[in-house]
Amino acid sequence: MLKLAISLLLGIGLRMTTSQIPPDNALAPSQQNLAHLLFTSPLMALNTHMSMACFSDYIAHLNVAGEDYSRDYKVCLLEAKQERKQIYVDAMLERRQIIVTSEAVCASLTACNAKNNTMELLHCHSGIGSNNTKITYNISGNASEYATLLQERYRLGDLHHQQCCHRAERLYVTTTTDNYSHLQACLEGRVKPHPPMTTSTTTTTGSVQPTASTTSAAITTISASATNATSPTTTSTTTTEAPSELAQSTMPPAVMEA
Questions:
Q1: pLDDT in tens, 50-84
Q2: How do the residues of the chain divide into helix, strand and coil, expressed in percent and rounded to 5?
Q3: How far apart are CA 167 and CA 45, in angstroms?
């Protein structure tokens, strides 16, 4: 029952963390690997409470890393969107200039065609033909040059977005790797858990969503229940019902349905 409850709470903690990570990302930690690490740790048999404290600390910092990664990823998306918006605005100005110039050429040709006298029509086209040729040549050159520039700006915008996402990913990988190394050292008794993090909850539509702190507290409570289970003064009813009630109270409807 203890292993089942712990695995359940690890699942809740990891689900909160992976919900912060952008989709199609392979950086999410494995619940199976973490459970295996916990239950094969020598410290688990010697000091269950300390083992749970190590995992509480790990889940809390993992959740923070996931939130930071999600925030940085959204910033990358916003910056890319703003850059593309500016490119679009600049392109509309150039587009308008080309349209105005080309419409002026068409208007001059239409005016010549509107003349009833054939001689006047010929002289009209003869007079504007040379100038229109220069204007049309300039339109062609400007359009070709700006098309190349526009394509390059979009390419650079995509490159900036990729670099931004890669920076956020590298930071997440580094942070979670250090966090996992600290967990291993903690389970081996070489280091102690970090000081408790500030508890925070997010309320939506009247329901309280679990955070890393609440999950950590739940794991700690289960650890205490497991410790009490070894005491002759603790009844079997207490040790068998506590994990079940705790799992129900800490799991929101959204997690239970997932």
A1: 878 888 888 889 889 999 999 999 999 999 999 99
A2: 80, 0, 20
A3: 40
* pLDDT per residue as tens digits for the range 213-234: 444 454 444 444 444 444 443 3
Name the residue type at position 172.
Y
CA angle 27, 33, 34 (to 5 degrees): 90
Check: CB of residue 1 under 8 Å from CB of residue 243. yes
pTM given for the model? 0.61
- The strand ranges marked E within the chain are 202-204, 207-209
In the chain, where the domains are located: 2-66+192-257, 76-168
Structure tokens at 80: 């890319």
Within 10 A of 169 (CB to CB), how many other CB atoms are there?
18
Please give the Cα distance from 160 to 155 (Å, whole number): 9
